[in-house]
## 1
Amino acid sequence: MTRSTKTDKARQLNAAFAMLRRSMPLSEAMQRLAGEFDLSERQAYRYLEEAAHLELPVEVTEATVPITLKVPAATARLLRAYARSSGLTIGAIVTRALAAFLSAQRRHG
């Protein structure tokens, strides 16, 4: 059995959340979740427990791949400082910045 990705986990948690929102009996929700995502009933129950504490579905993010970037030391210091103060990860900051840059490039080129 392969490990679930963060995307898989978010989808499973959101499915559990939707079942609870529809007031599906817990035993039925557990069986459906286990069957739909090929989970053990124990794991399905854990997703249902976690989903019970959510107010909204969780964001399903795109799978990520690691890359290596070389930036000037001063830029790295600023990036780390911003990450600490904002509570975001360096990966999230770089992803947002690159998405904004590439979006602007498409509009102008």
## 2
Amino acid sequence: MSEQTALSGLQVLVVEDAFLVALDLSDQLTDSGCRVIGPAATVEQALREIDGVALDGAVLDVNLAGERSFPIASLLASRGIPFLFLTGYDSSTVFPDEFQQAPRLSKPVDPAVLTEAVAHFRRS
């Protein structure tokens, strides 16, 4: 199955506060067949963006200008929506216990690794 087919039609929230990184992530996912919701740069914006939207998954930067994306992850988890974290942090101590096992990709993220990780949203 090609990347385009694997991700075709998936609605994926992108939460990233660095504009160029957000644009790059969104382009990668769109080119792979996703419909990108966002990108959102803050927790508040992300929560507004997904209100009433049927999501297949989300890509969440952990640190949003000093604010953590964990409230978004909690909401997604409560709805059974898969997500992954993007992080520059090596330490797992940044993550609350409830998210210790959540999928994480290190920044900068390789496009092929991102696409493969997002393809798992369909299987979840």
## 3
Amino acid sequence: MKKNRENDKEPEMRSEYDFSNGVRGKHYKQYREGHVMRIHKSDGSVSVQYFTQEDGAVMLDPDVKIQFPDSESVNRALRTLIEKA
């Protein structure tokens, strides 16, 4: 008999985490423009990775994403608008 993994999971947030002074979306605009990640390795070297939005990719605002959870639904809606234009 398989164990139910749902019951074995720890809560996602630990009680010692304090986000009371957090600001939602603080780095939102900079992230959408592209960002750099520096990974400091144990040997003292630093790995640098650059992330930018892929060509043709579109970022949906959170309120829009609720209505369009996947590419298929976005494309269907846009095609409907194009047909009516």
